[in-house]
Amino acid sequence: MATQRSAAAPHTVPSSARRITAAVVDALLALVCGVAAGAAAGIKVVDGVVELRPASPTVWGAAVGALFAVSFVNHVLLTLATRASLGKLLTGGRVVRAADGGRPTFLRLVGRWFFGFYWMLVFVPVHLATDSDVEQQDAVGLRVVRRRAGRA
Questions:
Q1: C-alpha to C-alpha distance for 84 and 12, rounded to whole angstroms
Q2: Alpha carbons 84 and 74: distance in angstroms, whole number
Q3: What is the biggest distance separating any 2 CA atoms in the chain, rounded to whole angstroms?
Q4: Given a cut of 50, is residue 3 above it in pLDDT?
């Protein structure tokens, strides 16, 4: 198990399996909520018959909007309140400032959220296409660490 230490606070870096599991949980949460919002927006009742219109722009707008909204709430607002997204809470991780292990700020969390989309769109396809061993990087002065026993 690798550890990263700063002068102010020692922290254990979570394994790749924990990080990947947390990312998958967070992605599935946003995706399921997006699909549910899209499906709800696409339901139309005509003469007592329920129809689903998946090609409607309203459906896609609701789906994409809900996906981004849930992702923002999970990765920024929940992390601001608890130091972890739902996936990290379930896998024992948390987000801290790299410099001193303190609480992340709102603006840094927003920057990290945007960086996650950049990482997903640029590095994940390159990694999959080349079968590289590039690991997720921490961004904007924040890092993911293992939660200590007895701490939230």
A1: 15
A2: 8
A3: 69
A4: no
